[in-house]
Write a structure and sequence with these properties.
The protein is of the alpha+beta class. It has 6 helices and 16 strands. Strands 1, 2, 3, 4, 5, 6, 7 and 8 form an 8-stranded mixed sheet that branches. Strands 12-13-14-15-16 form a 5-stranded mixed sheet, sandwiched between helices. Strands 9-10-11 form a 3-stranded antiparallel sheet, with no helix packed on it. Strand 13, helix 5 (273-287) and strand 14 form a beta-alpha-beta unit. The longest helix is centred in the middle third of the chain and has 21 residues, at 214-234.
């Protein structure tokens, strides 16, 4: 493709489970991380130094990368780690996300599943190579790389010390979580801003109100949350909540996150207009910080059905209403991942 250099993986791309509270179909362990390789003895990666400088300021950079012989098993938004091979200074030097192909990328749906596409092989012009588009969020200098010793200490289940040669090798959940934690130190701009925390005991985040009924509001919300969490548990869903750290230093706590349906839920002690409008703003604010905001559903948990006008307000923002009934709970609309 004109104007786009092909940068090889060396010999392989490794597919592995990615630990995430947001994943395909809402499951808690479902997205994928692609451990791609770059061997400087085979390709100079001429964009590398420029990518290092640009991503150091928080800028995204875009490229395509070979995925070896893979034809399926990669999806939009999957994590990509770039491992530098060779005789010295081995280690992870970049991380990003898989994008969809560009309009003029050659697509062959009979042979590969999107977002993988086929094009001229990076090393053999007479053959075809398998590629994905990548949004690199951080490309680290060689001095900043995750070294093999660091990776072996933190994630010993993967053979970092040997050349990565085969596609389809997996990282355990623990190993991948450890790699993400290490990489967050190299990438303060794009470290996860929202992380799941256990719901050992429901405590709705306090907020200040005029008047003396703050305590009863908090208590009502906590009881409503606890009841809905029990309702989900009976159906096999282990709910959690999310801790969100904003760029200006605030910490936000969501009420409930349903990982099975990929749904973020805000609870309110009343279904009146003020409570509903407050919840709409909170939900839209929270969702901005999630890894895949466009894939996350929003819902408002209230003690009774809102008025028709307020249901229409919620519907206009693609937010469902959930309220208790004798048999459990009902809702104004089903989550997309149900």
């Amino acid at each position: 493709m004109p104007g786009i250099a092909l940068h090889p993986l060396g010999s392989a791309a490794v597919i592995c489970p990615f630990v995430s509270f947001l994943g395909r179909g809402g499951s808690t362990v479902s997205a994928v991380a692609i451990v791609a390789t770059w061997n400087p003895s085979q390709d100079q990666f001429e964009k590398y130094e420029g990518f290092v400088a640009r991503t150091a300021t928080g800028e995204y950079v875009f490229d395509r990368w070979s995925v070896g012989t893979r034809t399926r098993g990669i999806e939009l938004g999957d994590r990509v780690f770039l491992f530098r091979q060779g005789a010295d200074r081995r280690g992870i030097v970049a991380a990003g996300r898989v994008l969809n192909p560009e309009p003029d990328d050659p697509i062959d749906s009979d042979r590969v599943n999107l977002p993988i596409f086929l094009d001229t092989h990076w090393r053999d012009p007479g053959a075809l190579g398998h590629y994905v588009r990548v949004r690199w969020e951080r490309v680290a200098s060689l001095e900043e790389r995750l070294t093999v010793n660091e990776l072996l200490a933190a994630a010993p289940g993967f053979a970092w010390a040997r050349p990565i040669r085969q596609s389809g090798r997996n990282l355990s959940e623990d190993d991948l979580a450890a790699v993400e934690a290490l990489w967050a130190e190299r990438d303060p701009f794009h470290a996860p801003k929202a992380v799941p925390v256990a719901l050992e005991q429901i405590h709705t985040t306090q907020y200040w109100t005029q008047g003396g009924d703050e305590g009863s509001r908090i208590r009502t919300e906590a009881e409503l949350c606890a009841r809905y969490v029990r309702y989900l548990a009976i159906r096999g869903v282990q709910a959690c909540r999310l801790r969100i750290r904003t760029p200006d230093g605030f910490t936000l706590w969501t009420d409930i996150f349903d990982p099975e349906n990929d749904e973020l839920i805000e609870a309110k002690s009343d279904a009146n207009r003020g409570a509903v409008r407050l919840a709409v703003g909170q939900l839209l604010d929270y969702r901005r910080y999630l890894a895949t905001p466009e894939g996350t559903d929003l819902a408002l948990l209230v003690p009774n059905a809102p008025s028709q006008d307020l249901l229409e307000l919620l519907e206009s923002q693609a937010i469902s209403a959930i309220w208790p009934i004798d048999s459990g709970f009902t809702r104004s609309s089903s989550p997309r991942h149900h």
